[in-house]
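Project standup — Tuesday

K.O.: blocked on the structure for the chain from last sprint. Re-posting the sequence here as requested.
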Amino acid sequence: MKNNSFLAFFMQTASENLANRLEEPENYSEQAIAGFLGDESKNSYDVTPDADFKKPNVIVVMSEALADFRAFDELKISDEYYSGLDKVAAEGHRGQVIVPTFASFTVRTEFELLFGLPVKSLNDPNMPQRMLAERDQPAFARYYKSLGYNTAYVHPFLSSFYSRKRIYGTFGFDQMIFEDDFTVPVEYRGSYIKDETVFNQIEKLIKESDEPLYLHTTTMQNHQPYTEGESDDELLNYLDNVKVTGDAFEAFISDLKKIDEPTVVFMVGDHFPSFKNTEGNVYNRLGINSSTCSKVFEQNYVAWSNYGADLSALPEERVSTFYVPYLLLDVIGAPKDTFIEAMTEKMKTLPVYSTQYDSSIPGDSELDVLTYDRVIGENISG
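H.V.: unblocked you, prediction finished:
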């Protein structure tokens, strides 16, 4: 049933993926990459941690369709819907990132968070993970493994959707948990597993892991449709779900305070939601769409730690989502290889690199070559 419901989605995107077919950059070479990265002797995972490196748990939560509609003043959205998220942000840090998609194609944002690379450099494919070379991939899970972490991926949905189980198995995760693999009691909200269940699973994994844990989760609770609920207004039903997510997140953070392990949590939505009612939905009422309003690509995030991590390392200005993995390494004080150092420096000169947000941003040969190299080419930079 679930596979059939998404058949039209895959057929629709097939032709678009062909149109976005990527060719090898003209200047792709070992010499060019060495020029981008500088000192060739450091172009490897030579990342011995300092003795005082705390190795905190690093939990990245990509929350399905989580977005803050308070960005649109004319909607007069009550703060109550976001109270749980606001309380956590008040204890930690709130900022904004530029996500590479609107209303759909979750895996665009997921790719940027997992790899630290821009989908713009891949010609903005709808499903970037399907462009990857069939080999072990240098996703950030693999980098955390080199630092002595256990690594886990949690997604409360079909393992076959977007071919995640097959493809993500090359990313360096020690454990992948899909909807049939949960080891905590599973509860649903509407058609999807509740975020609360996901947070409970994360807590269990933290407690069970003998080593520090790097974990990425992509949730599902707030996925469309939003016709289920107490209101005829999809936006109100959506906001009710957001309230449930925020309250569960606040409870999750409260539980982490009781766990005697240093932990950093980063939570962001993958995109603004898509509404079924094409005539009367909130975007039409506001007179906006993906091509006329940059706000729908500006996503709030919340960062929190229970041990005084330096959240001041997170920038005040907006940056593209693919820079988040490098920012988190700064927050926890992790060692960096040459590639990570180069990408951290790149953020200072080109903080936003996104076709969807700003189509006037020109191509960047360094980002384009490095992205091609790491996920499609020979991974010279690894």
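K.O.: great, moving the ticket to review. The longest strand covers residues 298-305. The two ends are 41 Å apart (CA to CA).
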